[in-house]
TrEMBL record:
It holds the Pfam family HTH_5. It comes from Methanofollis formosanus. SMART domains: HTH_ARSR. PANTHER family: TRANSCRIPTIONAL REGULATOR, ARSR FAMILY, TRANSCRIPTIONAL REPRESSOR SDPR. One of its GO terms (molecular function) is DNA binding. Residues 9-84 form the HTH arsR-type domain. Keywords: Coiled coil, DNA-binding, Transcription, Transcription regulation. Residues 110-144 form a coiled coil. The keyword Nucleus does not apply. This is ArsR family transcriptional regulator.
Length: 210
């Protein structure tokens, strides 16, 4: 049985919706950072932070495959039982409302939510189609500009947000040396730039100095 302090930490961790989504995904099978980021549409940096926190609390563990890609899996299943005391219930005082009024209010709210959902789905489908087109362009251009699929993984990770060298090590499952060499190559090519300890995509239409 968990101590009260450990229980509090676990509850704090599970209070975050994205961490719960990651745990639900890892219940199905072990996953690596890129896979989690793509499946759940969470930035790689946020995924890494969530995974590191849950690994520190021994909720998750990790291992490397033959390609040195780091996979995460559940270390233990978490089950939380909530019990209520047998004290007298506190009566809720609500204004009187007819059944017909409640019914119509619920129908109105449902209709509004359905319309909002349909608009979001339509927007999402449009964005997904545009993403597919751009991904095809990127794969085609990458054949001539980049040296490997790992370099393309780095570029796609930086398309989400700025990341540190340590973040990118975690993302690729590689050691710092190879990742840093690839980043330096991408900087020379004018695709990536470095600001302090963070790496990011270079701004569009920036001319390279001769």
């Amino acid at each position: 049985m968990l101590e009260s302090t450990e229980t509090s930490r676990i509850l704090d961790i599970l209070g975050n919706r994205n961490r719960r989504r990651i745990l639900d995904l890892l219940r199905q099978k072990p996953c690596f950072v890129t896979e989690i980021s793509d499946r759940l549409m969470i930035s790689p940096k946020a995924v890494i932070e969530h995974l590191q926190l849950m690994e520190q609390e021994r909720i998750l563990s990790s291992f490397h495959d033959d390609r040195r890609r780091k996979y995460y899996c559940l270390t233990r299943e978490i089950r939380i039982d909530v019990q209520f005391s047998n004290g007298d219930p506190v009566p809720l005082v609500r204004p009187a409302e007819s059944l017909e009024g409640k019914y119509l209010a619920s129908l109105y709210t449902l209709a509004r939510m359905i319309r909002a959902r349909d608009r979001l789905i339509a927007d999402l489908e449009t964005i997904e189609r545009e993403i597919d087109v751009k991904m095809n362009d990127i794969v085609r251009y990458s054949r001539n500009l980049l040296a490997s699929e790992v370099e393309m993984d780095l570029v796609l990770a930086l398309a989400h947000c700025t990341l540190t060298l340590r973040d990118l090590e975690e993302y690729t499952g590689l050691e710092a040396g190879p990742v840093e060499r690839m980043l330096n190559d991408l900087i020379v090519k004018g695709i990536v730039e470095q600001n302090g300890n963070e790496y990011m995509l270079r701004g569009p239409y920036v001319k390279q100095s001769l």
